[in-house]
Amino acid sequence: MASPKLLQPYQASTAHREVYSEDLILEVADELPPDGIDTTVKKLEKRDFSPDVSGNYVDGQLVWTVTATATGSFLLNPTLIVDTENGGYSFTTAEAKVGEEGTLTPLEMSGFVDTVVSVQFLSYEAVGINVIFLYFYATPVRLSGTWSISGNLVSIDSMNPYTSTTLNSVSITVDDIDASLDGNYDDGQIRWTVAATVSSGEFTLSPTLTADGYAFESVDAVVDTQTENLSLETSADNSDVIGTTFSGTTDTVTVVKFIFYATPFTKYGTWSVEGFITGVFPSATITQGYTELSTITIQNVVNLIAGLDGSYDGSQIQWKVTVTVPAGCFTLIPSLTASGYTVVSASVIYNQETFAAVVTTENDIFGTTFDGSATDETVVTFIFYADPDTEYDTWSAHGTVAGTIDESETPTEPVISGEYDPEAETAAWSIELPGNIGPWESIEVTISKDFNNGGEFDFVSADVYLNGRLYSSAEITLTTDSITVLISEAIGVDDILSIDFVGDTYSGYQWTSLVHITMTVPDERLMKRAVVEWDLSLTVVNEAAVPSSSESASGSESESESTSESASEESSSDVEASATSKDLSSQTSSTITITEPVFTASIFSLDNDDSNNDDGNDDGNDDGNDDGNDDGNDDGNDDGNDDGNDDDYTDRGINWNLAIPGSMGPWSYVEITATKNGTDNDGFSYTGALVYIDGELTDSAECGNFHY
């Protein structure tokens, strides 16, 4: 056998050098053995250099793929030519990789003219025969149609010093999808509906929408009378962009509807949506489809009651716009068209106060903006002052009043709610923390199971949202038995922080979560009372599994516990899922912890009736102070009340309260001395003192020595 013909490789690697022949590759060691060349021979099949081109259409973008093979080190130089029919397309980026598992490398594109693009991709490190993938991305002028590409590929590698091959021409065809987008607002919920018509055969439809001022909650696909709940897919680049996918088969022309449910961030406003829908139809002549969906806008507005009046005092015109707004936060924007005068200033009358307003003018249109809030229906008056043009003696104005009004009732305490999902067999809870309970330095929420009430379950997930959007600043610690959420930064007064958590149930028919909330506030806010706490609980019930003997206990019940006697707030909601209605209620209570004495005072009403006044003082002071100061209290109460109920005595009393926390101790004893202000000691008399420990009257305190 004749010796193989040796060819110079493009570049040898540093570890070894490869010597190529037409049929063989010899691996030659850098340090040859004494007896000559290494006899190890690795035989490879001779490569078949047949580059291929393919095309695909992905979310409105053309992707052209050039596939080629190369042996050892290589240089590939493809040149692609754009087909200008159907409006053509424009290349945007290019990248390449070696092998299916290779890393994508961006490539720099160069073009001779707008319709020709070329790149170079080389590798000195490649070994053996490899498949190389080169990707070219382009944006079509039109969103549907047929696009083609052609070109050639120049290749240099260790096996072939130079090869030029004409690439096969390939086309991409995308048809329009008959699709539409509509929306409506009803009772606090937005519904966007994408309707697409498909022909007989298999199909896959993928709508994508972009939110504006609301958060997507769920999506259903409706075909004929069948409804299927789909999963929402959120874009990794933009949380406002969501999509879904639905596949099916039909024997006739069918309309597929996608209903996206969303919750707006405000009760009143204007909301819009935009997006597109793509489709794949394997059994159709044209297998791909794409349609840009027209932007849709919906709104929920209040019909404002407004009036316009004008007057002239001989030198200046006054236009008066009155607007009646409902309770809530509002923004009003009156806009008028001027004729024969120039507006020079404006003011707003609101809650019997007058505010200066900034006038905006564009051509003959003038206006202003005013923000406010009202607890009841309120009238807001705008007054525009104008200087008339001398050649006119009659002036007119007309215009509109626009604005936004938020009547939503933001909770003033933490609120918990929940429901049971019979399909997933999970219990879900949600805690709302309104920003108006702060500001806070930090807030920690600890969630645990109530092992003594109901069946067994494991916590499986927990997420935190700020105004409906995922809040990444929260620190979440999750175990099967407990969840801890730590927020170390304040939120806005009008913001709402939501903690959603889910438990996987596996026994029983009701499950209870216990919640403890600790809020640390700035010292200056509560006079050194730096910690505020709440305890919440909520029981979620699977009503379908409630035993008949326990019907009286069906529904979801919640209880709250508090270490103080402060008033609690109760909230309730009706949740409807499938055909089951669940009544959920929750209670919250707050406990304020103090670390040093707190002194407060209040004025209360007294009864002018002698008998009532006597009873009140007898009961209140005699019982509490008999042992400590019989004489002093008897005299003081007799004189003070007898004189005080004589003619025209002011029927008010003063109650001082001094709270002393036990954390200041331990102590042997505490002595409190109260005296009148020496410079202003007229007009009242001390009548008695009572001492309570944790809200209960105690007789272990000695009270006396009243200085009237």
From TrEMBL:
<feature type="compositionally biased region" description="Low complexity">
    <location>
        <begin position="574"/>
        <end position="590"/>
    </location>
</feature>
<feature type="compositionally biased region" description="Low complexity">
    <location>
        <begin position="545"/>
        <end position="557"/>
    </location>
</feature>
<feature type="compositionally biased region" description="Acidic residues">
    <location>
        <begin position="607"/>
        <end position="649"/>
    </location>
</feature>
<feature type="region of interest" description="Disordered">
    <location>
        <begin position="545"/>
        <end position="590"/>
    </location>
</feature>
<protein>
    <submittedName>
        <fullName>Uncharacterized protein</fullName>
    </submittedName>
</protein>
<feature type="compositionally biased region" description="Acidic residues">
    <location>
        <begin position="558"/>
        <end position="573"/>
    </location>
</feature>
<feature type="region of interest" description="Disordered">
    <location>
        <begin position="605"/>
        <end position="652"/>
    </location>
</feature>
